[in-house]
């Protein structure tokens, strides 16, 4: 099934082992560019999003219902960790490029980031890994931490580093991690 295989490949862009190294590229880029506070905030926000996902999954396992309810019911695996990770990773990319770049680069980075967020969210539901409510909860959780990154980026002092090489670096690392086959979910972290 080529469609199923494509869905699996797309959903893996929300996996910690794929998206996490992409966040590391962001953090290192801003650290080297002497925007260390922003680098720290990106790292802390990502770590806190993962931790919050793990805690909420444990709560939903304890209190949640089965997967067989309505699409608006949270499952015992809520929220979707892939949705959290895609929103915090690619949402941060979109925010950073919206603020720190211009022209075609800005629109390309934002468009790619939003496409990846949407692809991960849709495939989590179509692969029957989560309910729509699980995915929506994951996206909201990730958006909270992305908003904190946006506030920090807006308050950044000094000039923005070159952003085109950052996008290339993030894409290369993401694609290398994707083809590596290494996968790690928040459930495995627990």
What would your notes on this structure say?
- The protein is mainly alpha-helical and 190 residues long.
- It contains eight helices and no strands.
- The longest helix has 28 residues, at 36-63.
What is the structure about, briefly put?
This protein is an all-alpha fold.
- Overall form: globular
The radius of gyration is: 16 Å
- Output the helix-strand order: HHHHHHHH
Q: Give the averaged pLDDT, no decimals.
A: 89
Largest sheet: number of strands, sense, barrel closure: none
| Distance between the first and last residues' Cα | 32 Å
The strand count comes to 0
Number of helices: 8
In quaternary terms, these chains amount to: single chain
Percent range for β-strand residues: under 5%
Which ranges are low-confidence, i.e. pLDDT below 50, for 5 or more consecutive residues? Answer: none
Q: What structural class do the secondary elements suggest?
A: mainly alpha
Total individual domains: 1
Helix content: over 70%
Topology of this protein?
Blueprint: H1 2-11, H2 16-32, H3 36-63, H4 81-100, H5 103-126, H6 132-154, H7 164-180, H8 186-189
Helix pairs in contact: 1-5, 2-3, 2-4, 2-7, 3-4, 3-6, 4-5, 4-6, 5-6
Provide tags for this entry.
about 190 residues; mainly alpha; 8 helices; about 75% helix
């Amino acid at each position: 099934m080529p469609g199923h295989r494509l869905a699996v490949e797309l959903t893996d862009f929300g996996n910690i082992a794929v998206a996490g190294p992409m966040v590391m590229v962001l953090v290192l880029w801003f650290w080297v560019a002497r925007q260390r506070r922003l680098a720290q905030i990106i790292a802390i926000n990502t770590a806190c999003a993962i931790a919050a996902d793990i805690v909420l999954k444990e709560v939903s396992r304890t209190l949640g219902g089965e997967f067989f309810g309505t699409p608006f019911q949270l499952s015992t695996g809520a929220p979707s960790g892939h949705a959290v990770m895609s929103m915090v990773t690619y949402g941060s990319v979109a925010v950073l490029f919206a603020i720190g770049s211009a022209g075609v680069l800005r629109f390309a980075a934002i468009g790619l980031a939003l496409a990846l967020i949407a692809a991960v969210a849709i495939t989590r539901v179509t692969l029957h890994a989560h309910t729509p409510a699980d995915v929506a909860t994951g996206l909201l959780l990730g958006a909270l931490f992305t908003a904190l990154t946006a506030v920090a980026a807006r308050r950044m002092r000094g000039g923005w580093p070159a952003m085109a090489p950052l996008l290339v670096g993030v894409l290369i690392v993401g694609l290398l991690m994707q083809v590596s086959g290494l996968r790690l979910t928040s459930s495995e972290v627990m």
